[in-house]
Amino acid sequence: MKYDIALIHGDGIGPEIIDSAVEVLNHIGSVFSHEFDYTGVIAGGSSIDKFGIPLLEEELEKCKKADAVLLGAVGGPKWDTLPGDKRPERALLGIRAGLELFANIRPAILYPPLADACPLKLEAYGGAIDIIVVRELTGGIYFGKRERVGDTAYDTMSYSVSEIERIGRVGFETARKRKKKLTSVDKANVLESSRLWREVMHGIKSEYPDVEYADMLVDNCAMQLIRNPGQFDVIVTENMFGDILSDEVSMLTGSIGMLPSASMGSGSLGMFEPIHGSAPDIAGQGIANPIATILSAAMMLRYSFDLDTEADAVENAVLSVLEKGYRTRDIAGSSDKIVGTREMTRLIIEEIEKQ
Ligand code: IPM
Ligand code: MG
Q1: Are residues 124 and 248 in the same domain?
Q2: How many domains does the chain have?
């Protein structure tokens, strides 16, 4: 089979980690006889430098035509002083909205060999962390009306019943395939949009009697994730709460450099990216952790192309390399073998070959 992938290298460490993911994909392609074709898409800071805006319409079109989009990271201090609608991050939001990718899936697994990198005591997490955050991605305060009037500024958080229902169902369906436990996170004691969120979730929960359902306020959830992360299976929440909680969850796994994500709409077209940023402080040094991007490519194989065996091969290879004690700097302990981006990529490919 042939698959068309729109490739967004982006800024900072983006190009280095995308190169790693492409190497891994090409290897998977040759082992399993698939052809991956890549179309470069310019977005973010590099697009601002070249075209003056974060995302050209024709670049977005390339994403729409592809079978999947793989993105490194966008942004950096160079563009920090630009007004909100001209910043590199707009490209990301533009693609999410343009492709109607309303469901952001962020799995956080603490790999046993990385247990030491988890900042919690073993008793607190019971030896295992395996949480998926399902984050609403095209609504809420990220896309509501915002304005500056005189010395005041406001942003609006709004949700419709249908927006809540479709992400709510992704939450239930995701939980159904796992430990069947769904926590819906909101701020219903204060926000009207959260009260609607809760009402809608309660309206659909009877359709999923096999899933254990609970509501949780977002401040409590932030605390519970540190107190007892083992209690969570799938968390479903609105856009900004999901942004914040997924960074918190990532740290439980040792490093934000480990976490992949998938952003899906109603069909098979998705965008896959690490949840971390462009890390301009370490760009170009060859030391960035490519694992989150490589695992994002694995999610692409699974979610957009339905290639579960191939995705398993990548994920197992990552685990084997970690088990052998190889680490990039961000996840290294004192006894680990520290490797750079390229070396880590090569080790992962070697493990794929051995399977
Ligand atoms: C993320 C990032 C983005 C977000 C930024 C870069 C716009 O933090 O994907 O979590 O807030 O959604
Ligand atoms: Mg974020």
Answers
A1: yes
A2: 2
Helix axes 14-32, 308-323, angle to 10 degrees: 120
Ligand 1 atom closest to the Cα of residue 243 is 10
Active site (annotated) includes residue 142: yes
Among candidates 99, 168, 87, 133, which has minimal Cα distance to 240?
Answer: 133
Task: Measure CA 285 to chain center.
Answer: 24
Q: Is 187 an active-site residue? A: yes
Q: Is 243 a catalytic residue?
A: yes
- Is residue 277 within 8 A of residue 318, CB to CB? The reply is no
Residues 6+ apart with CB under 8 A from 328: 257, 287, 288, 289, 290, 291, 338, 339, 340, 341, 344
- The SS3 call for residue 38 is strand
> Mind listing the pLDDT tens digit for each residue in 39-89?
999 999 999 999 999 999 999 999 999 999 999 999 999 999 999 889 999
Q: Name the closest-CA residue to atom 9, ligand 1.
A: 275
Q: Is 247 a catalytic residue?
A: yes
Domain interval for residue 208: 119-252
Both 187 and 142 in one domain: the answer is yes
Structure tokens at 172: 């239930």
Residue 35 Cα to ligand 2 midpoint, Å, equals 32
Q: Is the CB of 11 under 6 A from ligand 1?
A: no
How far is Cα 109 from Cα 293, in angstroms, rounded to an integer?
15
* Residue 245 near ligand 1, beta carbon < 6 Å: no
Q: Decide whether any atom of ligand 1 lies within 6 Å of the 312 Cβ.
A: no
C-beta 92 within 6 A of ligand 1 = yes
Residue 256 per-residue DSSP state: G
Give the nearest ligand 1 atom to 137 CA. Answer: 12
Cα separation, 139 vs 49, whole angstroms: 29
Each residue's pLDDT tens digit, 286-312: 999 999 999 999 999 999 999 999 999
Asked if 248 and 265 sit in the same domain, the reply is no
